[in-house]
């Protein structure tokens, strides 16, 4: 199917109004992108944060009369002072195949591979986790997830109980099970994350060893290993909760921390643990240590 897209210059105050109007006009997909490369690293929980200068992109079937669309958009009060837009014809191609071709098996550490289900497994004798890219949860391609996967690969997890705090897709917990962990407990505030973790564990044949809970439902336990790939702010605010899930001598790795944030996380956790030298991948850091 051929597609055409309209790119509209906006502000964060008007972006959602424009999006609503595009949807009313039959647009099946609306995307917000940063117009001026202004990073937003850590929105508050449940908050949708947009850039001061936001580009709103609407996708339409190429048969749609785009003149009629732009005429209608021009009537919006939010756009009457300045309506800057660009309509672009997109190349007609198999976008699903194009997207799939961008993902390949990736190795982490010595033993561990993360493999999309449509790709051949490079090393059948390795520890292989089958995980397809999704829209919301980790797949191993982000620096923060990679830092955690390499850390897990470096450990002897045989017989260990592991906590995946903020489990998302379940990638870290599933990797831990494949690497020899006896039990993994995944915790997340998003019920969809728990469902994704269960589905991915089933695909990898470890569903009977993975337990997932909302925070308010989790049982009491003390784990040997904890990994948390979230963000610096909740890592700081929830340090007592996180450390409370570990037994004395338990090991942990914390990720989702920017280089300029790492000192504040280290300052808190160093009061309760012996920390290793924090490792960096791009602009992201991993803090790891052993609880006192």
From TrEMBL:
HAMAP family per UniProt: Methyltr_PrmA (MF_00735)
Residue numbers binding S-adenosyl-L-methionine: 145, 166, 188, 229
Keywords: Cytoplasm, Methyltransferase, Ribonucleoprotein, Ribosomal protein, S-adenosyl-L-methionine, Transferase
Top-level taxon of origin: Bacteria
Chief place of localization: cytoplasm
GO biological process, one term: methylation
Keyword set includes Ribonucleoprotein: yes
Protein family according to the UniProt entry: Belongs to the methyltransferase superfamily. PrmA family.
Subcellular location: Cytoplasm
Record field: catalytic activity: L-lysyl-[protein] + 3 S-adenosyl-L-methionine = N(6),N(6),N(6)-trimethyl-L-lysyl-[protein] + 3 S-adenosyl-L-homocysteine + 3 H(+)
Protein name in UniProt: Ribosomal protein L11 methyltransferase
Gene Ontology cellular-component terms listed: cytosol; ribosome
Purpose of the protein: Methylates ribosomal protein L11.
GO function terms (MF aspect): protein-lysine N-methyltransferase activity
Enzyme class label: transferase
Natural source organism: Pseudoalteromonas piratica
EC number: 2.1.1.-
Entries under Pfam families matching the protein: PrmA (PF06325)
